[in-house]
TrEMBL record:
<dbReference type="InterPro" id="IPR027417">
    <property type="entry name" value="P-loop_NTPase"/>
</dbReference>
<dbReference type="GO" id="GO:0005886">
    <property type="term" value="C:plasma membrane"/>
</dbReference>
<dbReference type="InterPro" id="IPR003593">
    <property type="entry name" value="AAA+_ATPase"/>
</dbReference>
<dbReference type="GO" id="GO:0016887">
    <property type="term" value="F:ATP hydrolysis activity"/>
</dbReference>
<keyword id="KW-0813">Transport</keyword>
<dbReference type="InterPro" id="IPR003439">
    <property type="entry name" value="ABC_transporter-like_ATP-bd"/>
</dbReference>
<dbReference type="Pfam" id="PF00005">
    <property type="entry name" value="ABC_tran"/>
</dbReference>
<dbReference type="InterPro" id="IPR051120">
    <property type="entry name" value="ABC_AA/LPS_Transport"/>
</dbReference>
<feature type="domain" description="ABC transporter">
    <location>
        <begin position="2"/>
        <end position="238"/>
    </location>
</feature>
<keyword id="KW-0067">ATP-binding</keyword>
<keyword id="KW-0547">Nucleotide-binding</keyword>
<protein>
    <submittedName>
        <fullName>Fe-S cluster assembly ATP-binding protein</fullName>
    </submittedName>
</protein>
<dbReference type="GO" id="GO:0005524">
    <property type="term" value="F:ATP binding"/>
</dbReference>
Length: 243
């Protein structure tokens, strides 16, 4: 279980004051749930995900994973405890091949060609075309994104956090990816937290968390929250109301 208790993250603004990026956020996610975190641009979703992974150090509050307070742990220690995070814009690794990344992620040097190819196929990549490619600037943004998602699958983490996995991914690969998310959820081996604005991903969720202005404005079952989001989107726009 993931428990976030009264988490805040403040930075100094230009005038020397404090700017609250996350403000007293509390959230509990039960094991094996598929939770979609959504909300307007700049609402604080990525910051929340980075705080869970240890990439952002909260100003106050705590994060518990399976009952253990991990707030003070490093990224590496959190990864060892089964938490993994896929960046909105993944880094490239010059000098490393796709095969190397998959082996590093899985922690197994004996990963078979078959297994490596399966991870790539699950994100819509033709394995033989990519397995020996270097993860450098020669790969497109969408390719790097999918390779990173494949490494998260290879890691077999207990908590998988994906930051806008749909970004830059073509329609065909996206269909493959949503099917992979569905399978992961059905397997019930991991808790999935996916930051997304995509209706097809939101549709897979058990629960939706709406983050806006650094706070959680809504959280509940998809069936309850999604119609509210759609209604608010329309009612918040005078043009749409009149139409
Ligand atoms: N270190 C920082 N210093 C100043 N502002 C920051 C810092 N980190 C984040 N922000 C600001 O906090 C807000 C929340 O950022 P965040 O990336 O978490 O939003 P988001 O909900 O993921 O947005 P998007 O949907 O556009 O990806 C943004 O306005 C961002 O500019």
């Amino acid at each position: 279980m993931l428990e976030i208790r009264h988490l805040s993250y403040q930075v100094s603004d230009e005038s020397g004051g404090e700017l609250g990026i996350l403000n007293d956020v509390s959230l509990t996610i039960a094991d094996h749930k598929f939770v979609v975190v959504t909300g307007p641009n700049g609402g604080g979703k990525t910051t929340l995900a980075k705080a869970i992974m240890g990439l952002v150090k909260p100003t106050s509050g705590s994060i518990l994973w399976n009952g253990e307070d991990i707030t003070g742990l490093s990224i590496t220690d959190r990864a060892r405890k089964g938490i993994s995070y896929g960046f909105q814009q993944p880094p490239r690794f010059k000098g490393l091949r796709v095969r190397d990344l998959l082996e590093l992620a899985s922690g197994r040097q004996d990963l078979s060609h078959e297994e490596e190819c399966q991870y790539l196929t699950r994100v819509g990549l033709c394995a033989n075309d990519y397995i020996d490619r270097e993860v450098d600037a020669s790969l497109s943004g969408g390719e790097v994104k999918r390779i990173e998602i494949a490494t998260i699958l290879a890691r077999s983490a207990g908590l998988m956090i994906f930051d806008e996995p749909e970004a830059g991914i073509d329609l065909w690969s996206f269909s493959r990816l949503t099917e992979t998310f569905r399978q992961l959820h059905d397997e019930k081996s991991a808790t999935l937290v996916v930051i997304s604005h995509q209706e097809r991903i939101i549709d897979l969720a058990d629960e939706i968390v709406m983050v806006s202005g650094g706070v959680i404005t809504q959280h509940g079952p998809k069936e309850e929250i999604f119609p509210q989001i759609l209604a608010n989107t329309v009612s918040g726009c005078s043009y749409m109301k009149e139409a």
